[in-house]
């Protein structure tokens, strides 16, 4: 029998312009409400890149990474997955990008992703006594209030890991859009990870999806993910739903301008500071428009993301969206590769 693992390694980030530094720490048992997970694979999200480039604020030092799949090593008693099944040692899971208290005013209002005491994986200040708070590590210690969903063995690691952020966020976006289905005309701006995932989800629900992106290679990718049409710039036609997933101010403006009467615009790409975008209140009022912002997601969206990947990961080339894998020792190289023109939307890191 193999000796029990008593140590873990994590990649410490010390700020913009500094390399990651691997640190070894003792591996303790989970406390009340906690789950200890061995990370099988993590992916470099766009927000990780924004953090390391200084485009968004994040605590320094810290342990980055919030898209990962892993296996339960140890768990406190009485915990349950989103579907109500008990959490057991050996479960292969993805977990939510944040942990919520379940008791504050926001949690009671049904927006636990904006909990007043939110704990976000990959965005927490480093506590050297309890440092396993991000995906770029051999293990992650899940805080109480973290949503977990079991992933079947048939879904590859590189497909499952982004469910913790990208896929679940898109599930939340489509929910905010009213779950567009047959006969719905949907515009998606941005054909990155979120954009092509949105194209796949909306098209499988029966919607007619048009994806706008200035890059020809991304437009070609979107067609493989169910887009009925792709364009370099948003077309001058009316859409029932416009999903802004790029963060570009011009794309935000285009989504607002593209709405038909009764249309809904969901903005989810604008997660870094940028210039303000004007809003014509008369057009909004007369057009019966709805404008919704989406950031993070609720536990049900993580469950919906996994369910979609289980059902559709062989129909769409999700595995092609991830490059690598890289070792944890080569995390700097993984981040460099993620920033190259034409790179896959995600780079995989296998701790």
TrEMBL record:
The keyword Repressor belongs to this UniProt entry's keyword annotation: no
Keywords: Metal-binding, NAD, Oxidoreductase, Zinc
GO MF: alcohol dehydrogenase (NAD+) activity; metal ion binding
Annotated Alcohol dehydrogenase-like C-terminal domain residues: 194-309
GO CC, any one term: cytoplasm
Ranges for domain Alcohol dehydrogenase-like N-terminal: 31-144
Catalytic activity, EC: 1.1.1.1
Domain of life: Bacteria
Cofactor(s) essential for the protein: Zn(2+)
Xref: PANTHER family: ALCOHOL DEHYDROGENASE 1-RELATED
Family designation: Belongs to the zinc-containing alcohol dehydrogenase family.
Protein name (record): alcohol dehydrogenase
Organism of derivation: Pseudonocardia alni (Amycolata alni)
Source organism phylogeny: Bacteria, Bacillati, Actinomycetota, Actinomycetes, Pseudonocardiales
């Amino acid at each position: 029998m193999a000796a029990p693992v008593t140590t873990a390694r994590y990649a410490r980030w010390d700020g913009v312009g500094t390399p990651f530094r691997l640190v070894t720490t003792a591996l303790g048992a989970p406390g009340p409400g906690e789950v200890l997970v061995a990370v099988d694979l993590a992916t470099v999200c766009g927000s990780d890149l924004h953090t390391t480039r200084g485009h968004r604020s994040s605590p320094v030092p810290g342990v980055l990474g919030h898209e990962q799949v892993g296996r339960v090593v140890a768990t406190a008693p009485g915990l349950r997955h989103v579907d109500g099944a008990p959490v057991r040692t050996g479960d292969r899971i993805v977990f939510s990008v944040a942990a919520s208290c379940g008791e504050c005013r926001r949690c009671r209002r049904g927006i636990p992703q904006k909990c007043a005491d939110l704990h976000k994986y990959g965005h927490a200040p480093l506590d050297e006594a309890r440092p396993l708070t991000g995906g770029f590590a051999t293990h992650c210690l899940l805080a109480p209030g973290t949503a977990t969903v079991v992933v079947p063995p048939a879904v590859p690691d590189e497909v499952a890991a982004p469910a913790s952020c990208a896929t679940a966020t898109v599930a939340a976006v489509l929910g905010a859009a009213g779950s567009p289905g047959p006969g719905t005309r949907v515009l998606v701006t941005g054909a990155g990870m979120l954009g092509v995932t949105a194209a796949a989800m909306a098209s499988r629900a029966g919607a007619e999806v048009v994806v706008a992106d200035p890059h020809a290679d991304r437009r070609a990718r979107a067609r493989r993910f169910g887009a009925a049409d792709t364009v370099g710039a948003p077309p001058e036609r009316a859409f029932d739903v416009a999903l802004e997933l790029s963060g570009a101010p011009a794309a935000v403006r285009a989504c607002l301008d593209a709405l038909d009467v009764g249309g809904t615009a969901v903005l989810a790409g604008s997660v870094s500071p940028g210039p303000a975008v004007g809003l014509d209140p008369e057009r909004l009022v007369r057009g019966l428009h709805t404008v919704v912002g989406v950031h993070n997601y609720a536990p049900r969206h993580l469950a919906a993301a996994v369910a979609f990947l289980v059902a559709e990961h062989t129909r769409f080339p999700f595995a092609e969206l991830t490059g690598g894998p890289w070792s944890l020792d080569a995390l700097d190289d993984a981040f460099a590769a993620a920033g190259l023109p034409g790179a896959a939307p995600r780079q995989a890191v296998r701790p």
